[in-house]
Amino acid sequence: MSTRRDFMGMALGGFTALGAVGGLYAAKRTWDPLPSVKAAGFTTLDLKDYKEGELVTEKWRGKPIFVLKQTKEMMAKATEKDKKRLIEVDGAHYMVCVGLCTHLGCIPGYRKDTQDFLCACHGGMYDATADVTKAPPPRGLDIPPFKLNGTKIALGVTGPEYEKMLADGTTLRV
Amino acid sequence: MARIENAKSIGEWLDQRLAVQTLKRVLQTEYWIPKNINFLWAMGMVLAATFGILLVSGIFLLMYYNPSTDLAFDSVNYTIMTEVGYGWLWRHIHGVGASLVFLIIYIHMFTGIYYGSYKKGRELIWLSGMLLYVLFSAEAFSGYMLPWGQMSYWAGMVITNLFSGGSLHADGLVEWIRGDYVPAQAFLSRFFMLHVLLLPLVIIGAIVFHFGTLRIPHVNNQDGEDFDFNEAAELYKNGQKKESKVIPFSPVFLSKDVFVMGIYFVLFFYLVFYHFEFAMDPVNFDPADGLKTPTHIYPEWYFLWSYEVLRPFSTNVGLIAFAIAQVIFFTIPFLDRSPNVAPANRRGLFHLWFWAMLVDMLVLTFMGKLPPQGIWSTIGLVAALVFFALWIALPIITKSEKKL
Ligand code: HEM
Ligand code: FES
Predict the structure, then answer these.
(1) How distant is the alpha carbon of residue A39 from its chain centre?
(2) What pLDDT, in 10s, does the model give residues B337-357?
(3) CA B77, CA B72: separation in Å to the nearest integer?
(4) What is the rounded CA–CA span in Å between residue B402 and residue B339?
(5) Which residues have C-beta within 8 Å of that of residue A19, sequence separation ≥ 6?
């Protein structure tokens, strides 16, 4: 008789395990972001609206986006590595970055007089191109995927200029 | 069927069907507690009572709380605080309770460490206790999200970002936890679910388990003395109560617990009525704004020490340090290599270790609240390094401890 009982035990155990795996998968999918949340992830900005040296904060996917048109002074200070972080349109250079500290995601504050960013949370610092100058942040602010179209920039779409930034390690994919 | 006879009382009727007499014996009148203990052993029941109070006040808050990002802030700060009759009372009780429960947990933990109550035979008591600590931390964090103020939002942002694992850059995981790119409606709803249902259920289960782990090894005592509970119990049952080293948990010991609870609740309600503001961060009275970070982000006081362990290091080192700090207390029964079950003051170097750890955690707590600048950064860094050095030293100093 024991073999019949073993068989029933194994059959029951097998189906239970199957159900448990299915249930776990369903639970995982329930926690996933909704398709509507994923679909709402695009924003278009017109770069000719921005003034030199004035930080403007836009919004993309609920995150703050820093746009800072670089002044001559900033360009003079920027290193070659820094310049790679900038987006050039009609001869002007723009810093366009996700305004969340790469350490743990606070919003760094822009200091107009020193033309840099200070993150109050743990004291991280960034220069005017948003490259990191003081730890704990591990890297400069991330650049969102973008595609240029004249003076317009679409955030959330990957264009050739962004591909290049990814390829040479200027930014990580956001 | 068992023999059911005509019962002469309700008690007897129940006993025939539910064995209530046996239950009462096992859980109360013959669950033996040593006499040689002090008020610190009442902290466990103080915790149980505080949890009860949190549950009751939480149920009343639930009647008007609205878990929507548009309405949550007003439903708490306007509706509950100003419109609902005595709504402020439940909120202040809940806030003060959440803060004090951690104070008592820390006292309870350090009592266990001082008297070596995690050693051979009592490991599971310690491990289930630490499980409760982790669960209470999750419960406190999820509850902190609910008023959807600035601190809720930014603590939610910073803490969920920890799961990106620094250079692992696991943004997918972070977005999965949030259900969105940033903390938003999906995030608030799921933390609401965790806070009011799932975590409290698991906590209740864990408390039952913690009590279960106490039943066989029994609680420790002030001298770490290992005596024969059966023998002591026989003496007590034979009427030699003076000679016996034990008393029954209920009603005898419980009456002492209740006395300590009485004093505790005087303090508790003094805080609820006159000093509730210590449990309410002023920054959280600004509604959540995803485009503005508060100038200083710091957690509630009970998380400050582990936050300060994270702060002075670069991202990756900080994360690893933080992760270790969160779980390191689980390992104390295994890192303490000495067989002595005795109060720390009789254990030589361990005595020093105990106070060094306590003071170091206090220093970390104070530094965690101060802005990360200049001398404070340095003191924080040193205290964080001392924290880890102490854990490395623990097996070494306890290994060389003389057998008592
Ligand atoms: C908040 C939830 C908790 C509740 C309701 C609770 C409850 C209790 C109770 C009623 C006792 C017996 C009386 C006493 O010795 O105080 C006890 C003992 C104990 N608890 Fe907890 N506890 C909690 C959390 C913890 C934590 C976080 C730890 C530490 C990791 C812990 C470790 C211990 C130890 C080691 C003992 C045995 C003390 C001894 O043998 O002398 N408990 N707990
Ligand atoms: S979040 Fe900016 S330094 Fe930590």
Answers:
(1) 16
(2) 999 999 999 999 999 999 999
(3) 9
(4) 9
(5) none
Q: What is the pLDDT of residue B210?
A: 98
Parallel, antiparallel, or unpaired for β A109-111 and A116-118?
Answer: antiparallel
Contacts of A137 in chain B (CB under 8 A): 315
Residues making up chain B, counted from first to last: 404
What spacing in Å lies between the alpha carbon of B219 and ligand 1's midpoint?
A: 9
- In whole angstroms, how large is the CA radius of gyration of chain B? 24
CB A59 within 8 A of CB A67: no
- By CA distance, what is A36's nearest residue in B? B180
Query: Is the Cβ atom of B125 under 6 angstroms away from ligand 1?
Result: yes
Integer Cα distance of B142 and B140 in angstroms: 6
Structure token pair of residue B223: 């001298």
- Bridge partners (DSSP) listed for residue B248: B32
d(CA A84, CA A78): 10
Cα Rg of chain A, angstroms: 24
Q: Give me the CATH code for the B31-297 domain, please.
A: 1.20.810.10
The interface predicted TM-score of the complex, written ipTM, equals: 0.75
Give the integer Cα–Cα distance in Å for B42 and A71.
Answer: 67
Residues of chain B with CATH 1.20.810.10: 31-297
Ligand 1 centroid to Cα of residue A120, in Å, is: 38
| Lowest mean pLDDT, pick from A34-38, B53-57, B146-150 | A34-38
**Helical (H) or strand (E) element with B129:** helix B123-145
B179 interface with A at CB cutoff 8 Å: yes
Distance CA A122, CA A101 (A): 10
CATH topology classification for A39-167: Rieske Iron-sulfur Protein (2.102.10)
pTM of the model: 0.87
Please work out whether the CB of residue B306 comes within 6 Å of at least one atom of ligand 1.
no
